[in-house]
Amino acid sequence: MALSSALTLPGRSFLYFLAYLGQLAALMRELTIALRSGVWRLRLVAEQIVAIGYGSQAVVIVTGAFTGAVFTFQSYAKFKDFGMETSVGAVVSVALCRELGPVLAGLMVAGRVGAAMAADIGTMKVTEQVDALRVMGVHPVDYLVLPRFLAMMVSMPFLVAESVSFGLIASYMVTSYGYDMPSSWYLTHLVDHTNMDDLKIGMIKGFVFGMLITLIACHQGLKAENGAVGVGAGTTRAVVVSSLVLLIVNFFLSIALNYLYPLGTL
Amino acid sequence: MASPQSSPKAGDDADAFIVLRDLHKSFGAQEILCGIDLTLKHGETLCIIGPSGEGKTVTMKHIIGLIQPDRGDVFVAGMHVNKLKEREMAPIRQKVSMLFQGAALFDRMTVEENVAFPLIESGVRDKAEVKRRVFEALQAVDLEEHLNKYPTSLSGGMRKRTGIARAIICQSECILYDEPNSGLDPIGSDIIDQMILRMQKRFGVTSIIVTHDMRSVFKIADRVAMLYRGKIHFLGTPDELKASPDPIVQNFINGRSDVTG
Description:
The complex is a heterodimer. By secondary structure, chain A is mainly α. Chain A is 87% helix and 0% strand. Chain A has one domain (41-260). The longest helix of chain A has 39 residues, at 88-126. Chain A is elongated. Chain B is an alpha/beta fold. Chain B has a single domain, classed as 3-Layer(aba) Sandwich (Rossmann fold), CATH 3.40.50.300. Chain B is built from nine helices and ten strands. In chain B, helix 3 crosses helix 4 (127-140), helix 3 packs parallel to helix 5 and helix 4 packs across helix 5. Chain B is globular and about 55 Å long. Classes of the chains: A mainly alpha, B alpha/beta.
């Protein structure tokens, strides 16, 4: 009996996983229909841009800045052993543009915005506000998901750019004021070894992460049930799932994007 | 015609606005509806009564396509509701509106914005007309002085009345009321009853009201359906309901606790 349970558990988990992917695909399909309908409710999109983009700036800037600073602080000491301390700017810049900027901004947005989306829509679901929308002939995906999706698409590239920019400013300050490295050395290496491809990768990743966070969080909100307990559980799942998915997708996206935009040699 | 103990068969009446045919619905292992047959004519007011948890709200949600049946058919204005996809429901939802049990007002909107919402979504863009119709709808439920309040600052009864204003503003052919009198004082309850009667007389609105308030039932209903154990246990006029010899019916309408047998 215990053996059969142990054997069926992976199968059940796999089926649950497939069902979950199916639900996300169905939501994506509805979102595509909503996008193609052309009814975008721009006032709601603007409100969401304020909530997502403007509201997330502080957390993304602080995260980017201190990551850039600590990365520089640690790498400078090691690079100095090899007499390569002037390359710190290049390494930090490429790392922030390609990986740390988009991933950290994505994780912060998943925590802050993903949780808010799941809780907001989940509360509307359990208090029948989503059903009220349906009764009034308004599709919940059109009204609740599409504006958040569009706002995220607009906001995420900017948030990634801010995260990277403030990371680089912090890195520059650590090398210039902390280690007395001539600023021209730092800046020359940074500019020489950072190109548009690095920036493109950061933006593409931010775009994809934004899409994933919105889909996962809105899905958790729309399927919330069992009152406040269900909303709480859905909110937690939205943050955990979107953070994990973001990290996993980042790995595969990095491989794919490195084929498209190969990393230059330092 | 009273028909205790068995579900009536839906007729093929050409004037039928709503037809439920052999409706079955289960949630998990619990069977809620076990074959509901019901026909409602244009302009008719039907009250659905019955003990809590017998599927009154579930029946109502089938009519507007919020729930899909496991088996059976739902027709509204000749349209086969349970064959339509969510995005094809718009014609049904233009004809039928609904008041939810908890009013389901949008938390982020004021009373005025809540009531105006269905009107704006239905395509009315003239701001003066929207304002006028919102004021009229709120006047009908005695809430015209609370336009700028948010739902969280309203009492339960006021929320319910705002929900009613939102349900009536588009002047739908049919309005479904899920416990419109619950949480209201006797005067507030009478205001709602009078409004339902007025909607029927003035605009010929078809109404389905899920309620436990027997005083309202006898005041407003053309017919009464009693749900019991997943079936329509009684269907008839209020007078037939009063005169029914069925002990289950009598226990329910007189509030005796052995209603469940």
